What does this fold into?
Amino acid sequence: MPKNPLHTKLCDMLEIEFPVMAFTHCKDVVVAVVNAGGFACLGEAMHPPDRISQDINWIRERVGGKPFGVDLVLPSSAPPAGTVDKLHEGIPDDYWAYARSILDKYDVPPPKAEQDLHTWGGLNQEIAREQMDVVLEEKAPVFCSGLGSPHFMVEAAHERGMKVMGLVGKKRQAVRELEAGVDAIIAQGYDAAGHTGPIGTFSVVPEVVSVAGDTPVVAAGGISTGQHLAAALCLGAAGVWTGSMWLCSRESDTDMVMKEKLLAADADSTVYSSSISGFSMRVTRCPWTDEWAKADALKPLHSPYQMLLSSEYIQGANDHRRGDLMTEAAGQGIGFVTEMKPARQMMFDMVEEALETFENLTGVMPG
Ligand SMILES: Cc1cc2nc3c(=O)[nH]c(=O)nc-3n(C[C@H](O)[C@H](O)[C@H](O)COP(=O)(O)O)c2cc1C
It folds into this structure.
């Protein structure tokens, strides 16, 4: 019998049917993807420990023993401690003035609620450590680190029967994580949503595969179709890690104003900017990113200071649902997501298209 090209070592390792991993901040999307035969990872970097614990148990009750992941950010550059108010003091006056000029120029309304960065793992190392401790305590089946290396917790996770995955944008980062004993490596290219490096998906994936040996490599960045999935497997990946596409799923709690913007977006609607968080990040273009890209703009601050500076704009735009101002992390593959569908359907469509792609390729092979 011919081998199913979609059954990879990642499927064996995670006991999943399809080699498709979803990153999302929405618990309902996690449950839908996992129950559709894929794997999903819940972004918990913004949440306090008790909420993380509740979310893990909420998902557990709905996926019948199937594995899922929790993702945190562990930036080594974050200060050891410090509250939002204390860190505000580290932002120079001319930066506050520049941010204020943008808020005034675009008539950005003030946030309705208190800004919610107090429990963000990127704010300081203490918060990130407390978040990680609860993930270990709850023995989440898989821990992923989207920003910063998880090397220091691999042993503790393995002792608890958990698996650890690290996300990298360069071959040398992959080598470090492989040496630390991660169970899989996510190789993410420039096309990706969120924090990402300067190397494209088509280059970084085979580079990481070349050093990974038997450890599964998962391709990320701009992946949103079955053709992308097939291409990733051809590059030597054992699966794909996807983010943006799930924002447009029916289950996603993304605001409808943003969903509509994303459904209408194409690759050109996204920009690579450090103006939101201080790290290079791909997001949908908005007045804030435009202003910081101007030749005479100030150079964005490092994280977490730039994140604190941008939060009034982001939250004001979101709270008042100002489509002209809102921005979201989105990758270059967003242009292929044109319809809001249930996550289960999105998974099946991706798998079917990947299988068709392989069949078509086999059909044109000589002999
Ligand atoms: C809205 C959104 C928020 C994200 N937030 C995080 C995050 O908090 N932590 C993280 O590790 N990755 C985050 N990411 C990045 C994803 O984990 C993933 O690496 C990326 O979306 C893959 O690229 P793609 O969107 O082109 O599929 C986010 C992505 C999106 C779309």
